[in-house]
Amino acid sequence: MSPSAPEQPTAGPVAPPGRRRGRRPAGQDTKDALLAAARTEFSAQGYQGARVRSIAAAAGVDAAMVNHWFGGKEGLFAAAMDLPINPEAVLARILDGALDQLGERIVRTFLSVWDGTGGGAFAALLRSVASHEQAATMIREFVTEVVFGRLADVVGPDRPQLRATLCGSQMVGLGMARYVIKLEPLASTDAATLAAIIGPNLQRYLTEPLP
Amino acid sequence: MSPSAPEQPTAGPVAPPGRRRGRRPAGQDTKDALLAAARTEFSAQGYQGARVRSIAAAAGVDAAMVNHWFGGKEGLFAAAMDLPINPEAVLARILDGALDQLGERIVRTFLSVWDGTGGGAFAALLRSVASHEQAATMIREFVTEVVFGRLADVVGPDRPQLRATLCGSQMVGLGMARYVIKLEPLASTDAATLAAIIGPNLQRYLTEPLP
């Protein structure tokens, strides 16, 4: 889109059959090619297994284009999933604080991100996940490897992954009820009230003894 | 579909412009017409406001066809939403028991219904709700009027509707995580364990003091 976008640093001479290599128009075409390749690679390899170099190669552009257009792997993932935020930065903010308020912090952060888009971005993400196996796989791989992996690190030894996914189930349901089904009065209850009510339920899932 | 389906009892002579009246082939055409009319009426009027006679008239068939093909209004709604169960019968089962085990009963019943379809029916319902405003409206009207209305009756005077919708958010999220995103280990955890873990969180939403 930007007229000052740099061109691809290494332009190959002729594209071999079945590979898209060589000089490409800078801008939207490059971004689209990277996003398409990213969706394929992230859903096949998972977030951590995906390699920026492989995505760039599949898109026929230099790996430097990923940093240029998306600021790196995290930003590329967020763009491929149409996320309004950088998920790793948000996760770092959630994990930085007292463990006994982790549940409330999760709800507060979640609502500040998605309420900020009027809920439309969450609804779009949900539609995508519900309709496309590839999107469901990308989200599953990402939350399992990155989000739940880190949450599990802080919650102790008793079934940390199950605790993290229970927490995830409440959050995806909150988003569904608030932004997609628009169930009242939940949809219009203020974020602080919801954080105070839902936070302790997440806290129980994460850190309290479970049957 | 059934060869012994009765024909429409009252066949009008000529269909007036813009109305589909008169004799129709019994069977799939009748069912399809009723389902289409039901989706329109339920999403416009809500579950309780919808009238079986209006749906039948819009479909151009006698109201007796609703009982014949769907067993009544509840069955017509379930079929229009592709639900694997009669929601009012399930609700009656959930509400019939000790109040202090209501949360666990909700989880157990929910999982027995949807696990029974391999989760595919829930995923299909979710896709429909996420993609079609009309489906989201039907579900919203139904759960608000019928499910949450009855739940609210039993949970006491403090914000009963909010409590019911919080409970709904956990359940839709459980379905989403288990059947659509297929988050492990939640997706393969046995139903009894999940009921024991999630039940108390629902119970807190429904009957315990909230901030």
Describe this structure in words.
Two copies of one chain form a homodimer. Chain A is mostly helical and 211 residues long. The first copy, chain A, folds into two domains: 28-80, Homeodomain-like (Arc Repressor Mutant, subunit A); 87-207, Tetracycline Repressor, domain 2 (Orthogonal Bundle), CATH 1.10.357. Chain A is built from ten helices and no strands. Chain A has helices spanning 28-49, 52-59, 64-70, 73-80, 87-95, 102-115, 120-131, 133-155, 160-180, 191-207. In chain A, helix 5 packs parallel to helix 8 (133-155) and helix 6 (102-115) packs across helix 10 (191-207). Chain A is globular and about 50 Å long. Chain A binds chain B through residues 123, 126-127, 129-131, 136, 139-140, 143-144, 148, 159, 161-162, 165-166, 168-174, 176-178, 180-186, 189, 193, 196-198, 200-201, 204-205, 210-211, and chain B through 123, 126-127, 129-131, 136, 139-140, 143-144, 148, 159, 161-162, 165-166, 168-174, 176-178, 180-186, 189, 193, 196-198, 200-201, 204-205, 210-211.
